[in-house]
Sequence to fold (229 residues):
Amino acid sequence: EAGVTQFPSHSVIEKGQTVTLRCDPISGHDNLYWYRRVMGKEIKFLLHFVKESKQDESGMPNNRFLAERTGGTYSTLKVQPAELEDSGVYFCASSQSPAGPRVITDTQYFGPGTRLTVL
Amino acid sequence: SQQGEEDPQALSIQEGENATMNCSYKTSINNLQWYRQNSGRGLVHLILIRSNEREKHSGRLRVTLDTSKKSSSLLITASRAADTASYFCAPGYNTDKLIFGTGTRLQVFP
Fold:
């Protein structure tokens, strides 16, 4: 079974440009998450999709970030315009069961991340 | 804050030694997960321990959970150079999002 894949693995752009990151979750996983790690800091949650719907986008830093999940399959995260502080590693993760209150958090499987550098 | 805090921030040991990392959190949890990140790669899920469990094993990994002290520990026995990585704990609440700390950087020297 293929794992979570992300594209590109690295991206170097200039301040003010636009970048789009892509995540392909494990087939059949309804839940898709975006996280990011800014240099030297903790990994922070950005948002959570259940199928094509945004379940929780409380971690999105500002309106320069736009995430979509068309058809409930792959997801894209667009940063427009990019700023220096957006540099970091962006991780995508997916998990299997539908969201909702439950006792046990399902295991989230992470992709290798996209390293974004904004110059 | 709901994030876990790992301790120590960095740990260096020789191959064959045991490595112990700790995680503390502040509010009641449903479970706690440990993840590993090798340099330049994604996070790998290691183990999940539920709030009603005290200890769990997986291969060379042993995780304990003390809910009265709001702490967990991850023990790696007979460490190998390939265990060199950053280790993160993620306390689990009634939410799907994982909340990570800054991690423990483990270096295992051959």
User: Anything to note?
Assistant: Residues 51 and 72 of chain A are 4 Å apart (CA to CA). Chain A touches chain B through 33 residues (CB under 8 Å).
